[in-house]
Structure formats: C-alpha cells, structure tokens
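DM between two lab members

TW: hey, do you still have the Major facilitator superfamily transporter entry open?
JB: yeah, one sec
JB: this one, 478 aa:
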Amino acid sequence: MKQEKISRKTIGAVTATGILAFCGVLISTAMNVIFPALSAEFQVDIAVIQWLTTIYFLVLAIIVPLSGFLKQSFKNKTLFLAAIGLFIAGIILNAFASSFALLLIGRVVQGIGTGIALPLMFNIILEQVPSGKLGMMMGVGTMIPAIAPAIGPTFGGWIVTRFGWRAIFIFLLPVLIGALLLGALTIEQKMKPQKAKLDLMGTILVAGFFIGMTFGFSYMGSRSFFSLAIGGAFLLGAVCLCLLLLHVRKHASPVLKLSLLKNKAYTLRLVCFFIMQLVLMGLVFILPLYLQLVNQSTAQTAGLIILPGASLGALFTPLGGRFLDRYGEKRPIVGGSLLIFSALMLFWLLAENLGNVMIGLLYFLFTLGIGFSFGNLMTSALAQLEKVEQAAGNALIMTVQQFAAAAGTAIIAAIMAKSQSNPALSNSAAVVEGSKHSFVVLLLLFTGVLLLLGQMYLMKKEQQPASLAKNQAEETRG
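TW: and the structure you got?
JB:
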C-alpha cells in the first residue's frame, strides 16, 4: 500500500492560513483583559467596549457563509492575499486608533479577513491532502485556532502590563508579514475557478438572523424577555430564518446550502459539533470569573492556570486525527466525548470548592476530550458528503461554529448575571451559585451529544459517499 505524502507547499499553505486564523482568535481573547484600559482611555462604558468582541464575531458569522461562493469564484491565493491584507489593515487601524469608532472599524476589517481565511484553510486541507492523512491534517487545522484562546488572556495580560494595549497589535505585525510571504510562495490552485453568482438576498437574511439572535442573547441577563431588546431581536432572527428557509428552496446557488441537512449522517454530526462548541465557549466564560472572583486570583494568574491544560489539550488534536485515520471515527469521538462529560460532571460536583490546581486539572481533562473529538466530528461530518459538496458543507459547519460561540457565551453570561442579581449573596457566593447552575446546563446539553452519538453508532451502518470510497480504493491499489 502506497502512502501518499503531503507536499511541502500544502503544509506551507495550511500554516500561512492557519497563522491568520490563529491571530484573529488570539486578539479576540487577549482583548478581554484590556477592556478596562480601553474604557478609561476612550471614556466608554464596559458594556459598550464589549462590542469590540461582539461586532467581530458578527462580521465573522456573516462572512463565513460566503466561503462557498468565494472558493468557487476566486483563486485560493487571491482570497488569501485579500484576507491577510484586510487583517493587517485592521491591525494597523487598531494599533494607532485615536477614537473608539476607529477601534470598531478595525475590528470589522479584521473580522472580514478572518472570515475569508478560516474556511480557506480547511478547504485547502480537503482539496490537497490525501484521504489517508486527512484526519491528522484536519486535527492540525482545528488545533491552530484552538490554541489561541489558551494563550490569549496570558499574552494580553503580559503585553498590556509591560508595553500598553497598543503593543498587542504591533507585536503581531511581523508574524502576519511572515505568513503573507509564506502564503504567497506556497498556496496553489488545484481546481479552476468558475463564474458564480452571489446570493445577495440570502446573505442579508443570514446577517439579519445572526444580528437578531446575537442582540437577543446579549440582553437576556439584564432585560425582560418581552422587551424590544430581547423579544424584538429574537423576532427579527426568527423572521429572517423563516424567510431564509423559503429562499434557499428557490435559489439555485444559495449562500448556505441547507439542503445538506437532508443528509442525516451529516446533520447528526453537525448538531454534536454545535453543542460541543457551545459547551466549550460556556466553560471558557465561567472559569476566569471563578478564578478571579472566588479564588481571588489576578487576571494574569487566571490565564496561567488555564494555559497548560488548554495548550496540551489542543496539541492532542492532531493525535486524535491520527486515531481517526488509523482506527476510524468511533473510538476517538466517543472516547473524547466521555472525557468531556466526566470533566463537566466533576466541575458540577466540586463547584463549591474548586481550587486553582483542581480547575487546571479538570480543564486539561476537558480539553483532552475536545482534542480527540472536536476536529474529528468535523472531519467525519464532511466525509458523509460527496467531494463536490464539501466546500458548502464546510461553510455550514464554520457558520454553525460562530453561532454556537455567541450562544454559549450569552447563555452562560445570563445565568451568571441572574445569580449575581441576588442581593442575599456576596459576589463570590453568587459566582459559585451561578457556576453550579451553569455546569448543570452544560452537563444536560452534553448529555444530548452522548445520546446522539449512541444513535449514530448503534444505527444501521451508514452508506459511505462514493467519492470517499473511490479515493480510499485508489490509495489501497497504489
């Protein structure tokens, strides 16, 4: 059996696009620790400052669905150069911003760049990596942005303490210029671009859905559900979703190919992926609060406690991909999911007495489970589709991932805010109570993943797509 090797140019292309995706996530997580400094300098409330993160994810969620259209219409190198050019422009705007408005504009520009680059990285992997190495490389692709949330708070705290908040952006410029040169030299084109028509109405409806749902979730903890801020926002999201479902039935090339959801095997994995991302972002929101407000750790110490577990867990992602390549998807996905469930159960049981060391150990157990299951769920979902459908399938997965990130953060923030509004509780006691309730919610949600996995692997053996079977047969004959 001939083992196809991954070309150096493919490795370079994945690295270049991965660096851009990594920097996008790194800045988003690093900015959380500089909000007080920004609030003081620009005389803006923390509630308004939060839009530097919210608007970034909103733009990301709107641009990612366009990845199918962009891939079909433009060359990979053209997309990469546009993405990194926009991102560098946004970085420069933020580094030298003289007003809060310029900061917001810079974040919007960065969101557009990352929204182009993130799906591009996975499309290059799917298009140019031999199927026998696909699991490992999808794991690498998943690992690159997954490490950034672990490093972000520590990086941001260290930089702002020593050099000021503007240095966060300036320090990334040499890295991005290196990625620009690497991508220009290595990114290749395997499939000829074709003329495609942009689904403008579909894009507007997707944007309306995300804007409505994001605003609704953001205000859940502080406003009445029937207020305009929440009820009106959710109504806008629901109306846009209904219109989008009607629209995609009539459009030949919709912005999101929702017809892929008719594929039950793909949809089951997509739902598991959505819940897993939601739980991940929810937990990432809880732990820094607990460490700082209950255990009285500094922001930098909190980042350092989370850093080892998150980094080591993310580094296991390629190993999880190799397990998929060698043993199939069932073992790493089910095994990783059981580790996640165990960690969440222990977080809940020990919620009233979580020391720093215990948080670090349990978070490592959690991220280890993520490493073995998260990227493999994405690989497995795309493997259920024909080759020609995978770019559209990837766009849908990336879109769902952004929505899950926003939903997970907002839901847990609302639970925590509800507990903190209880006047009978001290601040630390309220965080403990909110954390305990949040762990229960995350545990119940993840129980749904285990039930879906049971259905997935106990049901009748799924029919393998013809394109995947053909590729594997050719490698075996080789």
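TW: got it. Confidence is low (pLDDT under 50) at residues 463-478. The chain has 20 helices and no strands.
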